[in-house]
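Bumping with the actual sequence this time:
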Amino acid sequence: MLRSMTGFGASASEAERGTALRVEVRSVNHRHLALKTRLPEAFAALEPEIEARVRAKCERGAVSIALTAEHPVGSEFARVDRELARRYRRELAELAAELELDPLISLETLVALPGVVAVGQDATAPEVLHTAVLRLVDEALLGMLAMRAKEGENLAADLRKNARVLAQLATRIEKRMPRIVRAHRAALTKRVQVLLGETKSVAGADFAREIALLADKLDVSEELTRLASHLGQLESLLKKGGRTGRQLDFLVQEIFREVNTIGSKCSDATVAHWVVEAKTHVERLREQVQNVE
């Protein structure tokens, strides 16, 4: 099954030892695998394990993992940095003496200074929640991968639709080529008659050689054969599924090359319109495969 690089998954626990946890995993397209984690400081030690679990399941994409933890009321701590308060008092007293001011330093003044009182969560308590966090990460990853698979089905359907149109246009071009050669032969004959007049004529062998050269110049049978082969490979990769994004990307480049060559060889208005239409569908293929893992 084809898999997109766009996905989202989330998992949450109502309460683990009084703490509510929620993990969200988001993924968008990227040429390689790019990971970004956003974890509370108390859970920073889990980052290598979380990244390992993502790498085991994803090959490409920009994946971001966010963990939020809501702690129960009353779990906060308050800590007074006594040494810092003493340094503040000493510096303020020296400043007051230097400026010849009364050193009116109260406890209220000291505790309002930066860093004297620290408020936060207990940094050691969440270690008992690590197992719960990893379980939520696994569940969120499964949700994200399920969405990637669903998006992959839609991508495969759109890729097949555009490939079918390309195959139909290639068939039209192939059927029209003999008519184009005949039209160019008639135009060449008319130009020769105009240039030489009715009194002179070109040797049959020389004229046949020029017609053969013209037909060879207009021949796009090799390009049409390669295009059909590329479209067949595209269908094979879609059936194969899995992580085929890089192969599809290269294949679409080759499809564009063949379509572009056909357009440059055929100096025919109808074929030119078909080539423009074909390029539109190739561009659609290119846009879609950019999101295939």
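The tokens above came from a reply further down the thread. The mean pLDDT is 83.
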